[in-house]
Amino acid sequence: MSIPMCPEQIGSRQTANPKEHGHGRPASVLAIANQKGGVGKTTTAVNLAAGMALGDKRVLLIDFDPQGNATTASGLDKREIRPTAAELLLGEAGIEACIHASHSGDFDILPANGDLTAAEVRLVSRIGREMILRNALQAVRERYDVVIIDCPPALNILTVNALVAARGVIVPMQCEYYSLEGLSALMSTIEQVRDSVNSELAIFGVLRTMYDGRNRLTQDVSQQLETHFGRRLFQTIIPRNVRLAEAPSHGLSALAYDPASTGAQAYVQMAQEVMERMMELAACVAGRPPLGGVSTLDERKAGERG
Length: 306
Ligand SMILES: Nc1ncnc2c1ncn2[C@@H]1O[C@H](COP(=O)(O)OP(=O)(O)O)[C@@H](O)[C@H]1O
Ligand SMILES: [Mg+2]
Prior knowledge:
Blueprint: E1 28-32, H1 41-54, E2 59-63, H2 69-73, H3 85-90, H4 95-98, E3 100-101, E4 108-110, H5 115-123, H6 132-137, E5 146-150, H7 157-165, E6 168-174, H8 183-196, E7 202-211, H9 216-229, E8 233-239, H10 242-246, H11 254-257, H12 262-285, H13 297-305
Parallel strand pairs: 1-5, 1-6, 2-4, 2-5, 6-7, 7-8
Antiparallel strand pairs: 3-4
Helix pairs in contact: 1-12
The protein binds adenosine-5'-diphosphate and magnesium ion (MG).
Residues 37-43, 69, 153, 209-210, 238, 240-241, 244-245, 263 line the site of adenosine-5'-diphosphate.
């Protein structure tokens, strides 16, 4: 697998003139992707958004799944809200009009609903359809520190739009026997996007979700993931916690719903890890070596061989 996990490849770039754009750096764009459903993508997207907002980051959460779960979890009514990602994709609305405040007010949300499925179908014959989100984001990237895209459970044109727009991919995974299965399809999609339109795309991190430490198999799979992904695996592990499942029905992140819960605390910690990683990467891009040194998968393999 030749997808880089090297810090030089991801994270935000210093602009030539930092003063030009207020805070000096366009947002880092992170896609939360895994074509398996129910692995914790939306839960991660929403709570990472809230966690980074808590860390004083200006966050835009983009719901790119027709199920609209991130929209609901952000406190918006997906049946009522307009315009959404569907209008954006079809060129019927500009990105500014599609951005709404989340109910809690701590991050912004670009919502989605079932209309996105119809939009996706209508896009099939359009040239440059995989570039739409990337191009649209140019207009607002200076306003945010981070843009988080919640992908649908499929490797379709919506996910490809997210991968084309992103610098880093966060892959949530359950520690189950088959969790690595199907990952090669995601990796090969990432590779195709890298080879064609977005050479900067890389794995930002792999996240263990819904973790039940009492289960022996879970521990074994977790160990396998450590061996496989090395430092690209987030140290933070998200436990199975009912508060994380309850919060969306209140239109809130778990951080707003029950900040003291173990689930909310885990996402606060994960957000911290993401911000640290982003700082490492920014330092790396600015020419300084990354803190701690992050080896690539290929380097580690070479080390194991030799
Ligand atoms: N750590 C967790 N503990 C308990 N329930 C969780 C956890 N993470 C996600 N869930 C629940 O599992 C289901 C699937 O999670 P979700 O984030 O929607 O996955 P995806 O977006 O990958 O389909 C949802 O009902 C969600 O509330
Ligand atoms: Mg989802």
